[in-house]
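Pair request: fold both.
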Amino acid sequence: MKKKFIEESVLFISVIKWLFLASCVGVIVGLSTTAFLKALEYSIGKASGYNYYYLLLPVAFFLSTLVIKYLAPGAKGHGTEKVIEAIHKHSGRIKLLVVPVKLIATVITIATGGSAGKEGPCAQIGAGLSSAFADLFRFGDRDRKKLVICGISAGFSTVFGTPIAGAMFGVEVLFVGGLLYEVLLPSFVAGIVGYQVSSALGVTYFHGPLNFIPDFTSVYFIRVCMSGIFFGICALLFVEVLRFFEWVAEKIPLNDLYKALLGGSVLAVLAFIFSTRYLGLGLDTIETALGGEKIPLPAFVLKMVFTSITLAFGGSGGIITPIFFVGATAGSAFADIFGLSRNVFAAIGMVCLVAGAANTPISASIMAVELFGPRVAPYAAVACVISFLMTGHRSVYPSQVLSISKTTSITVEKGKEMKDIENVDFKPRDGSISGSIMKGIEKMKKEK
């Protein structure tokens, strides 16, 4: 009886402790995210008043690369990836200088037309402030990691106005196929508090429940499953396009600053040729797709290219907002090809691309409920899981650690980062259906 009392007392104290600490993180991230979003909104408004604002892209990439290279190299990339790396390799330690540098570099990039998102910087800013908070009160490595994860959750929640999906994203994005249940409570608290703080300070969010959802039929369900396969292939393509342009940037024998000028120039030319639709956040196009209006069929591929050039050649920003753009426009294209409802499949595509590219099917499914209402949730959840499986062992976050194999038909080493897994020579397991098919194909080749 005494042992049970001691156990319950310790658990009670732990709950109170993390309710308080996670609330503190939520307030800190809510305030910092609001400041960032307001600064970004003001900058975009000023820049967009000029017809050819995107001609400043070479200068913007140059300045972004300059401040990151010499002030805070940890601010390079699309934000969330660096936080994942810090949690796995540095016990969540993030230099405080990353916070202002990331904010400035991202505002410069997106305001002038760089194709990037706002959630990565918010996650990195929130995580950086959470790490500083942990250092200030001399918390150990274990508690620091938990606080930094809370920073990711709160950052995601306050950017998109999805507190539950944001909380799940923070605990799901670190490991592919694994959830950190010990951080579940503080992540939920941080996400909800951060969202309430930013909402109270005037940040507005898009929530558009879908009023028309077709009744369930076997044919319609098959089409939803087919869309999951299509969105999974799109997510895989996005990952590979990102990797390709990173490879191209590495192979160019120039200083990083000159690469930034080159990348900004190329992006400005592409914007002049195709459209300014693919620059910046692209929120207007996302809302147009969700509204059921027609979108050019190749829009999702062009956005992949614009985003990849931005992030590979010195631009700063997140990856999830471009993923939303790719998903919504790919969903619209899928609906046009098969004669389906554009707004329904734009909504499903938007969350499916997150599930596949970021390997977060649970948070993506919850996001479908928070953004579009419960009626689309069953279809979105099924498509999200299919998209997650179709992407294979790839990710826009190469520092994610693999906890499970996505199929028992493939032998893959667990516990490694995704960037290392991608180089493994996959072989189907003996006795599996895939293995039998592969053996049959090899036998036919030998007979020929």
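--- second member of the pair ---
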Amino acid sequence: MRVSNEDYRRVAEAIRAAEQKTGAEIVCVLARRSSDYSYVPALWASFAALATPWPLIAFTHLPVREIFAAQIAVFIAATLLFSLSPVHSLLTPRRIKRARAHRAAREQFFTRGVARTSGRRGVLIFASLAERYARIIADVGVAEIIKDEEWRAALDLLRARLREGSIADGYVAAIEETARLLEGRFPPGGKDELPDRLFVM
């Protein structure tokens, strides 16, 4: 999914508008994928290679050397096959994708400085396209007042627009809903501490 200059502009404007209503800081990050899962093809190929000798031993009279060669050939062919993008994605368990995306969101929370704002009032809006994952992480100053379940509407808006292929619409809708939650509880004031932009990784 391509991120256009217009997408960047609209998200930046939405963040600036939201932060005029609240003293909290909003940071937006979009990941194309949270991991390359490079070990997955080799892992599945290893299972295929380990299973290869047994039917050959049971149903053929091939010598050990040929069975061993077949096992190596299966490993190489399976690794190449499982490395193809659609197959690779299908073979990666959803639980692992979710865990990697969750970890990426936590890393971005600290990397982008969301945890270093005055009053601990930072909020990260994170989405990872390949994993179809979205999360809002609030720093302790916000999390003490706004509970996790209250972010659900903003996340639902973000996910719905991303499924439609509209990055800017998704983030703008999530930012506006985030601002609605923040503005009554964290009145505007203080300096703008973090960049008002969409980070793409």
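Observation on the second member. The two ends are 13 Å apart (CA to CA).
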